[in-house]
Amino acid sequence: MTEQQEKLQTSFRNQSWTKPERHIQLNKPDPSGQKTECFGLERGNRFVRRFKLFFRDGRVISIPYAYLPVVIYDPDRDLKIKTADLEITVKGRGLDKLADHLNEEKVLWIKESASSVDTEDGEVFVFGITVEGDLMA
To answer: How many domains does the chain have?
Structure first.
């Protein structure tokens, strides 16, 4: 075996074949141990294709970013995500940060608060999510 072949074989053996760790940031957890996370972010360079909506009743909807032409943030009311077939309304506090992350296509998931009571922990609080449109019928 030549020296070059040995180097290639050694290099091949030393490579990691596991998937790279996902860089996800969650909002700050509640010190009491209850989770208060409202959304998750991709912090690495991975291309995010979809984000999920988690409802307090257990439903989950997965939406591709390619489907999202318009994000509308109204600081006095809500955050609206409009597509040709759907209108998603997110109600809560601090939604400007969520809107910025949606515009950058970095949001992995958005979750309604389990109790819908704002404990004012964390920068963002999601009181409710509604989805309307032809696809929901």
So the answer is: 1
